[in-house]
C-alpha cells in the first residue's frame, strides 16, 4: 500500500463545503475520513510528537469547523481550510499557554484559585478549590468566569477566544464533573 493517495477531486470543488454549510454531518465525516492521516500527522508535528495533544488539537479543529459551518459555502479547498483551522487552533493554544505562563511568572505566590463561597455555604473553600483544580483547565476557567465572574456565555467566549457554544458546553461538562465528584466524596 502506498502512502500517497489520489485525492478525491470533489475535495476541492466546494461541493462538500456547501453540504457542510447546510448542516450535513456526513460531509464532515467524509472530509475527515479522506485526510485524517495527514491531519493527524500535522497535528502531531505541531504538538512536538505528543499524540494525546495532537488528538486534542484535531478534535478542537473539527469542532470549530462544525461550529463555523454556515460560513463554509464559499470555501473552495476544504482540505486547505481544515489544515488552516488546525494550525489556528494550535496557535491559539500556544498564545493561551504563554499568557498563563506570564501570569504565573508575574504572580508566583498567587494560588491557582482563590474561591470562596457565601458565609453560610456548607462547602469549605478548601474542598471547593480542590474540586475546581480537578477540572480540565478549559472547564475550570469557564466555571469560574460564569459563577464567580458572573459573565454571560457570550462574554466568556470573547474572553477565552472560543465560540459561545464551546463556552456553554465546557460549563455544562465542568458542572457535571463537579457534581459527580461531590456525590462520590459524600457517599
Question: Judging by the overall fold, what is the CATH architecture of the largest domain?
Answer: Orthogonal Bundle
Number of domains: 2
**What's the β-strand tally?**
0
Q: What is the CATH fold-level name of the largest domain?
A: Rna Polymerase Sigma Factor, Chain: A
- CATH homologous superfamily assignment of the largest domain: RNA polymerase sigma factor, region 2, helix turn helix motif
| N-to-C series of helices and strands | HHHHHHHHH
Radius of gyration: 20 Å
Can you tell me the overall shape? globular
Biggest sheet features: none
> From the helix content, strand content and strand pairing, which structural class follows?
mainly alpha
Number of helices: 9
- pLDDT below 50 for ≥5 consecutive residues: which ranges? 1-7, 9-13, 113-119
Amino acid at each position: 500500500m502506498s502512502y500517497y493517495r489520489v485525492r478525491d477531486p470533489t475535495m476541492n470543488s466546494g461541493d462538500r463545503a456547501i453540504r457542510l454549510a447546510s448542516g450535513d454531518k456526513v460531509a464532515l465525516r467524509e472530509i475527515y475520513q479522506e485526510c485524517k492521516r495527514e491531519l493527524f500527522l500535522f497535528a502531531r508535528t505541531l504538538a512536538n510528537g505528543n499524540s494525546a495533544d495532537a488528538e486534542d488539537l484535531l478534535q478542537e479543529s473539527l469542532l470549530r469547523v462544525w461550529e463555523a459551518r454556515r460560513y463554509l459555502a464559499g470555501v473552495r479547498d476544504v482540505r486547505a481550510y481544515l489544515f488552516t483551522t488546525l494550525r489556528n487552533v494550535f496557535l491559539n493554544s500556544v498564545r493561551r499557554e504563554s499568557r498563563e505562563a506570564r501570569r504565573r511568572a508575574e504572580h508566583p505566590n498567587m494560588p491557582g484559585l482563590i474561591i470562596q463561597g457565601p458565609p453560610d455555604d456548607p462547602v469549605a473553600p478548601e474542598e471547593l478549590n480542590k474540586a475546581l483544580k480537578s477540572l480540565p483547565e478549559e472547564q475550570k476557567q469557564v466555571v469560574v468566569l460564569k459563577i464567580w465572574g458572573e459573565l454571560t456565555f457570550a462574554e466568556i467566549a470573547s474572553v477565552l477566544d472560543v465560540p459561545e457554544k464551546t463556552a456553554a458546553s465546557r460549563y455544562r461538562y465542568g458542572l457535571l464533573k463537579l457534581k459527580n465528584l461531590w456525590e462520590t466524596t459524600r457517599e
